[in-house]
Amino acid sequence: MKKNYKQLVLAAVIAASLSSGVAAYDSVAQALENANWSTVAAEVNTNGLQGNVDANAEKIAKVEGMSVSEEASFTPTAVPPQYVTSMTEESVRPYVGRKVTSISLDNIPQKDRARVMSLLKTKVGDEVSFNKLALDVAALGNLGVFAEVNPMFRIVPEGVQLSFELVANPVVRGVVVEGNTIYPQEQLLGYLDVPIGEVLNTVTVGQRIQGVDAALNRDGYMLAHVAGVEMSPEGVLHIYVLEGIVEDIEVQGNTKTKSRVITREMLQGIGKPLNKFLVRRSLQRVYNLGFFSDVNMRILPGKDENHVILAIDVIEQKTGVITVGAGYSESNGFSGIFEVGENNLRGTGDKVNLHWEFGGKASGPNYSVSYTRPWIDSKATSLSGTFFHRTAQYTDYNEKGESYSTYEKKSQGVSATLGRQTGLFTRDYLTAEVRDDKWLVPGDGGDPGNYSGAIYNQGPFAPGGVWADYRSNNFGTTNSLTFQRVFDSRDNVYEPTAGHRYFTSLQWAGHGLGGDFDFYKISAEARTYKNLGHNHVLAFRLGAGYINGTAGYSQLFAVGGSNTLRGYEDNQFRGKKFYNGTVEYRVPLFKKVTGVAFVDVGDAWDAPEVPWYQGKKRFNLGFGPGLRIQTPIGPVRLDYGFGRDGGKFTFAFGGQF
Q: Which domains can be identified in the chain, with CATH numbers?
């Protein structure tokens, strides 16, 4: 609990004043020069306190639109009178109604007496009034220079002579701040600006202490405050700061997840002052692990008044995935799917997933295996690996969205990704990948709607024909290294309501790495979220990319479908260049159901190695309504988009963005 430091400084100053005697006239005179003569509280700024604020706290605050370690000012609350007086209503009663014949001020230099006299409500010739005298005592005491203000009376034939006995505060011989680690000591002393060799002004010091408290609160140190002020007999002013040090972090409610998996996400360090920005972001990081349905924090008392314990309360949720399904369609026949995964393997935070599809008209099974270890060292370095093998039927579209051909493609490969936390919100990734894409002849041997089998060596596909090199230019092995940088300050990665996500990627394929293709692929995307209140969210996304060199069909940018441009076929537009943008308004309708209204724009163009695709850059617009439904197997997206050629319904798993 924060102490009333004003009461502490009052007691300390009075004791020091009585023990040190009356201050010299010149010291009092200098103190009166610096006194606050206005009855209105002066504005106090916190500009001078911008030092050792935790760098992460400062970054978080700026992302949240807060001003940390920046210029700020406030009007302090009135500093209560910090003096004592022997005057009571009973002591004044014998003199009430008598005429004041003279007024004198003790311990006030001659040159300042007129100015001090102007503060008094009681004038020569007035009758003694307790209410007026109370205002006079307050006016003199609120100058901050005097520890005692006592009105004295001497009866004379004409009335009474009024004098004010004033005991000045002690002269400050030095200032020491104890318990402070947040701001540099010299900076803090400079901000307090207590004049050495002058009479202490308790009003000014009180306002400056309020400024220190305001700066601590501004910078997120919610428990830090000036807890006490003391004047030693030697005239040294001691100012005591309690910072609210985190003694320990305790995790409660986790039965599966190991406590270290949670505490390693904490930006708030043990042995450091509690900072609300660090704590809030830490809780977001823990929630974004996806292991818990709820995350909360409690502050418990520590070993003394300057220490606290953070108790992190979590409610675990299921992190395993088991999916078994089957289906039938005339185009693909019977097919099945089996998937098993664990996003929190043995409570360590490791992720493993096995996905297997079988059946259908494709000539082989589809499967992928992946494993991710999010922390391989103490610096949040991650390592993941993936092996995939997919054989599936694909449909290609021309620039008009018309189905041009259906065929089978076999893709297989392996990748390894090393990730590293390079900033509070920034993470870098380096991925090495080898993949091979093969064009397969369907089992039916080809048909007029298929550039395969019986017709593959005829017409434009015949040797020397204009499309003869299509397969060799678009299918083969790609060896690449990809560098990615992700800035992510979203409050909730699953349902963001605030923050930003910026993504840049550079892929280097071939050019000394081997394979059948040599190209550079650059892409970038920006997402931002605006909370409009009442859980209404406005989400924005903008992306663009460019490929330099010869890239296979699978490596071209693709736009169209539920993830990029609703109201159009999946991957309808392909090319070496692309752009896309989305504005989406999200509003909760019922429990676990959110309604959306969206507008998508985008295009991909420039595919010289795909001769049947003659697309040119154009503006494609899609818009419509949608629903987001939280189900036991994850979020489901239902959208109906209106595009250039009419409407199209899309169904997909996972959040939009």
A: 1-240 (no CATH), 245-316 (3.10.20.310), 475-657 (2.40.160.50)
